[in-house]
């Protein structure tokens, strides 16, 4: 069985399928095995154990092991152990997981024409290898892009006198020299790492490196050793759970919580970590042994976006400096190391009313560092809220606070974020801002605008992600159909129909995206007009009455006394509604569809009717009618 030219994921692949009656739970299972090289099956084995599979993989230099179901290898810990026994760099592929969906082996046979009916284990192994070779399926991610190197004493000297102590010191110095040797090799190769050592006198009883590179990157740099005096073990870091990535798919950053975080870190063999939000509230507090920066980064990203990394000592430890640099976070270092009494006081203040409690000194020191950092920024963070409120700008405050943390002046940060979110280009330096820009719009208008902006951005992001996901599925299905070597079967017809459906869905999303872009452009135009004072917004009467009922709008609290009568009401009800909304001390303008003559007598004193037909610039959008201020005046 061979395949023609097509996009190739791996040059050589070893396919497996478990034999009937065999099970990973019942001992070492048996598999059928096929090796594919350059699209051609070069070896078939009907019965093989895993130890023989590892030898075959090494002999042929395969790039991947492919199965129809990776659980045939066992549970997650068994899969990790088996993958560790393979040559470094070999990937694991599940061919039945296509673009995030599970297909049966029978369906793959029908779709590709490589086999018919229910295939035998050997045919299934061949199918898996050929499909993985062509880039069909998903890579099973077992390990992180990290490797742990452990160095320790090969044996501990028993009881004895001075000679025992000399021997013990000799081994510990040997361990220290080996650690220095590995450290030099990693630095020469420019590989990032963390190092945790266990000291004893002048030597080390052991050390652990966490290297931020896959196992294969260490080939030729560090080798495993197991001797009488010391050992060196090299292990890839296992993921907390198996993950899947479609072959050929772009690596996408997972969605993360948007909140900004201040993180205090007390590094060491046991590392303490304290996480606060920008209000100084404790979000997480923990300590762990041998906590590498990679694992800590993943944990922090599950909680939010780290913007400040804090330490309690000066100068800051290398671990903390590297962590801040990798996260793009501001590094906070106190002007002098914090005393134990000061750390105790800061930690108690931070924990007040939080429900958390300190379990060790590492957590205390980390919490003190984080809270000290928060206190240093607190006044400016509160200034951001006051400045945005003073200007009446409904902006994402955390973005402005992040700019301030990074050194931007408060007023400048608020204006920058407002310009970004409203799509406003800055004026030339010599042009003064109009006085209207300093006026504070009504609270109801501000909150509604903020909600519209938030929904707009969220929907655009959701559509973009959905479009990317569907494009990946189309690409995967095209690769699968290219493999087909026989006339279309009913399964193929079904899949092609599904592909056509996906393409229609993509076209619908494209149209929705274009419509959303038009809506966004309109929103930017109207909101820019509001901020600059060129446009004004008349709240629809129906919306105003709803806001009154919900308690979101107080009688007489409209910042711009403008109302658009969007629905016909009996004159007495209209008069009562306008009386609720009108500020007795100010006149009100009412835009109406009806002739002014019909309303003048019924309107309350101080209410000026303006017919909609006389306003050329009027544009209805959402809960508002937008108007040119000059035209209205």
TrEMBL record:
Pfam families membership: DUF460 (PF04312)
Family matches, as InterPro entries: DUF460
Residues forming coiled coils: 449-526
Keyword terms: Coiled coil
Domain of life: Archaea
Protein's name according to its UniProt entry: DUF460 domain-containing protein
Organism encoding this protein: Thermofilum pendens
Lineage: Archaea, Thermoproteota, Thermoprotei, Thermofilales, Thermofilaceae
């Amino acid at each position: 069985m061979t395949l023609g030219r097509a996009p190739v994921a791996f040059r050589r692949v070893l396919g497996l399928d478990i034999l009937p009656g065999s099970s990973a739970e019942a001992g070492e299972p048996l598999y059928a095995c096929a090796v594919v090289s350059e699209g051609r099956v070069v070896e078939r084995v009907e019965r093989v154990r895993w130890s023989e599979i590892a030898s075959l993989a090494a002999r042929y230099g395969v790039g991947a092991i492919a199965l129809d179901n990776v659980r045939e290898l066992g549970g997650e810990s068994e899969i990790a152990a088996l993958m560790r026994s393979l040559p470094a760099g070999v990937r694991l592929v599940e061919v039945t997981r296509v673009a995030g969906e599970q297909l049966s082996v029978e369906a793959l046979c029908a779709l590709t024409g490589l086999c018919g009916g229910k295939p035998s284990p050997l045919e299934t192994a061949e199918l898996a290898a050929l499909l993985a070779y062509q880039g069909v399926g998903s890579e099973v991610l077992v390990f992180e892009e990290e490797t742990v190197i452990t160095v320790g004493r090969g044996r501990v000297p028993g009881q004895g006198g001075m000679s025992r102590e000399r021997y013990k010191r000799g081994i510990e110095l040997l361990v220290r020299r080996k650690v220095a040797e590995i450290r030099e090799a990693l630095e020469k190769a420019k590989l990032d790492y963390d190092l945790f050592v266990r000291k004893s006198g002048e030597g080390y009883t052991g050390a652990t490196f966490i290297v931020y590179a896959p196992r294969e990157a260490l080939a030729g740099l560090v080798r495993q050793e197991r001797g009488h005096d010391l050992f060196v073990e090299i292990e890839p870091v296992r993921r907390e759970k198996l993950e899947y990535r479609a072959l050929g798919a772009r690596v996408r950053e997972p969605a993360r919580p948007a909140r900004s975080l201040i993180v205090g870190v007390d590094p060491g063999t046991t590392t303490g970590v304290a996480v606060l939000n920008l209000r100084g509230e404790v979000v997480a507090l923990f300590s762990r042994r041998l906590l590498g920066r990679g694992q800590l980064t993943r944990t922090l990203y599950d909680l939010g976006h780290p913007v400040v990394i804090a330490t309690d000592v000066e100068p800051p430890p290398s671990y903390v400096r590297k962590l801040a640099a990798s996260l793009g976070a501001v590094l906070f270092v106190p002007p002098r190391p914090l005393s134990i009494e000061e750390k105790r006081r800061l930690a108690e203040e931070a924990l007040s009313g939080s429900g958390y409690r300190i379990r060790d000194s590492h957590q205390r020191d980390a919490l003190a560092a984080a809270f000290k950092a928060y206190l240093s920024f607190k006044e400016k963070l509160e200034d951001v809220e006051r400045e945005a409120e003073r200007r009446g700008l409904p902006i994402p405050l955390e973005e402005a606070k992040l700019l301030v943390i990074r050194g931007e002046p408060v007023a400048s940060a608020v204006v920058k974020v407002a310009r970004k979110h409203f799509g406003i280009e800055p004026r030339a330096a010599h042009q003064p801002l109009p006085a209207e820009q300093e006026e504070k719009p009504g609270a109801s208008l501000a909150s509604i605008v903020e909600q519209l902006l938030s929904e707009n951005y969220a929907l655009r992001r959701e559509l973009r992600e959905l479009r990317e996901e569907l494009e990946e599925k189309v690409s995967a299905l095209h690769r699968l159909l290219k493999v087909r070597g026989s006339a279309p079967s009913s399964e193929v017809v079904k899949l092609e129909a599904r592909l056509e459906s996906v393409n229609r869905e993509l076209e619908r999303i494209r149209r929705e995206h274009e419509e959303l872009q038009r809506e966004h452009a309109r929103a930017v135009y109207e909101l820019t007009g509001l901020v600059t004072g060129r446009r004004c917004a008349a709240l629809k009467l129906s919306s105003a009455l709803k806001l009154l009922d919900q308690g979101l709008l107080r009688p007489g609290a409209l910042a711009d006394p403008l109302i658009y009568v969007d629905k016909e009401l009996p004159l007495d009800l209209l008069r009562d509604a306008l009386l609720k909304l009108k500020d007795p001390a100010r006149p009100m303008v009412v835009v109406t569809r009806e002739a002014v003559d019909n309303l003048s007598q019924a309107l309350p004193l101080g209410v000026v009717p303006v017919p909609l037909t006389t306003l050329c610039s009027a544009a209805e959008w959402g809960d508002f009618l937008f108007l040119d201020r000059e035209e209205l005046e």
